[in-house]
Amino acid sequence: MSLCLVQSRALLGLDAPAVTVEVHLANGLPNFMLVGLADTEVKEARERVRSALLNAGLDFPHNKRITVNLAPADLPKDGGRFDLPIALGILAASGQIDAARLAGHEFAGELSLSGELRPVRGALAVALALHASDAQAQLVLPPGSAEEAALVPGARVLRARHLLAVVRHFQPPSDDAADGEGCEPVVAATPPAATSQHPDLADVKGQAAARRALEIAAAGGHSLLLIGPPGAGKSMLAQRLAGLLPPMSVSEALESAAVASLAGRFALEHWSRRPTCAPHHSASAVALVGGGSPPRPGEISLAHHGVLFLDELPEFPRSALEALREPLESGRITIARAARRSEFPARFQLVAAMNPCPCGWLGSARACRCSPDVVARYQGRLSGPLLDRIDMTVEVPAMAAAELLDAPAGETSAAVQARCAAARERALQRQGKANQALHGEEIASHVALAPAAGEFLRLAAQRLDWSARATHRTLKVARTIADLAASASVAVVHVAEAVQYRRALPGLH
Ligand SMILES: Nc1ncnc2c1ncn2[C@@H]1O[C@H](COP(=O)(O)OP(=O)(O)OP(=O)(O)O)[C@@H](O)[C@H]1O
């Protein structure tokens, strides 16, 4: 047969659309052509495939005109993932393997010049897409990628270390099976039990107000800004938020792992552990929200179902902070390119920390050296719309040495997490989602505001000149406080505490 079709998949955001690798061998001037919107890395597949076939002792059809088409042609394709399907297409079209036996399989893998198979990024996204499409195909993947893909329930995965292993697997039944290793089925890996590797809240002494805010944020999924002088323990608190969040469901763990796999950062020991991403403030907007060509996920997507910690918030480039506005509302980020739009999930919980002024001591016992102008300019780096999207702001005061040394160890993360999980469960029972995710009408129907509490909130919103968003966000925080207190309705005391968390930055009253 001189025409052969092999199935594979491209990556488009977290999606993995099907790609058919069509290989045609014809008589004519010897040539090896690759068409179908392939980028440079894919075009280099020609050289890798040629060398891999020859070094593996297989025949490369030198005297043929080889045309490889990656269909659909308008789908951008990147990376070395098509090396294996192209090589198999050539082998099948030249009769060295049984083309009919390739049906029902999908392939991805980069070839080394000796024919070894190297892992490809996004194997989990491929397995998830296959699972979602209800296709029954078996995946043939290199080591590393195969174990990732096998995490998807019901995935049928074969692991191949070398091109020859795949060739042995698909040789015509009549041929004498050559000796050596073939493809090995990968049994669905049992991921290690999610052990909490997060630092414990017991290490944080004192700071009762900030600990309480952290607990509310964890229970309801609210975004939190910690403000305080240097060394007050803001980073310590932020690093402990992920350890207070409820355990991940299987679908959350799969989504989070799939994004990490797209960025080539997945490791089995991170399975089902809520990620904390803490990009440095010198990070660009692209590093933070994703982008590039082909588009890759940024830190906000790598923090999907976990925590995004932005320390020294005002030091981040304005463009990077403004780019957070859309995902903070929608939980997704769309990266538009001329050819295609890629969408990545980004349902992260934001925790940010900042000093109140450049010297850091405004409002604390030590004298602040900053003029009002300098303070205003520093705090002005955070735009109103961004601050409006932060649900809770809490001050973390400096601790006196005596207080720090004498304070007993704080409550453990496990104890606080149990309360957060119970409150989250109440919200899920009531409305099927965390309080932070409530929108529009849902807020009115699920918050169950007592009449006096409604009056209190109206007054506070009017006096403090809040936007509609700020009022709604305060209501959602009040709902979480009521959930933590196991109260069916939201009372004045819950609203009053929530109002406390929506105050202006210090020094700008
Ligand atoms: N409440 C606390 N309990 C125990 N240790 C603390 C506490 N606060 C601060 N520390 C100690 O101080 C160190 C610095 O804390 P951390 O880095 O969290 O401060 P920070 O507020 O983030 O400072 P910066 O604004 O400079 O980033 C910690 O590593 C810890 O040793």
TrEMBL record:
Keywords annotated in UniProt: ATP-binding, Cell membrane, Membrane, Nucleotide-binding
GO terms assigned for molecular function: ATP binding; ATP hydrolysis activity; DNA binding
InterPro entries: AAA+_ATPase, ABC_transporter-like_ATP-bd, CHLI-like, MCM_dom, Mg_chelat-rel, Mg_chelat-rel_C, Mg_chelatse_chII-like_cat_dom, P-loop_NTPase
Keyword Cell division attached: no
Highest taxon of the lineage: Bacteria
Residue span, MCM C-terminal AAA(+) ATPase domain: 298-392
Residues annotated as domain ABC transporter: 196-486
Alphabetical list of Pfam families matching this protein: ChlI (PF13541), Mg_chelatase (PF01078), Mg_chelatase_C (PF13335)
Record keyword ATP-binding present: yes
Family, as annotated: Belongs to the Mg-chelatase subunits D/I family. ComM subfamily.
Designated name of the protein: YifB family Mg chelatase-like AAA ATPase
Provenance organism: Ramlibacter ginsenosidimutans
